[in-house]
Amino acid sequence: MSPTQENEEIEVEFVDIEIPEEQIEIESKKEKPRALVVVDNLDDGETIRFWAAFDLKIERVINRVYKRFDLERQPGDRLVRRDDQKDVFAEAHLTVRKYILEHGGKARIHWEFSGDTGGAAR
Description:
By secondary structure, the protein is α+β, with helices and mostly antiparallel strands. It has helices spanning 3-6, 21-29, 58-69, 96-102; strands at 34-41, 47-53, 78-81, 108-114. A hairpin with a 5-residue loop joins strand 1 and strand 2.
């Protein structure tokens, strides 16, 4: 990472989300910078939200999405950025920080998932 990229500011967006009471203490103790990840499952209408540390690889974030949706990855699955519908799998090698810097600098990631059935429930 070049020195200019390392010093670039990341805009933090404050979002109201529901965090179960038992997680509030855990969330408040974390000191690492992190991004809010929001993923809409177009197959069943479920939306998940969780925090991802800036030093995590996008690949690990993707794995967490599958775990939270209780799914196994299939060859025809689509995971795209909500705003421009670009493929997220292609950027799995990036860290969350690098991904954010390359896509607007906001510490909020919003993706859309659809399974190999093209938006119909599996």
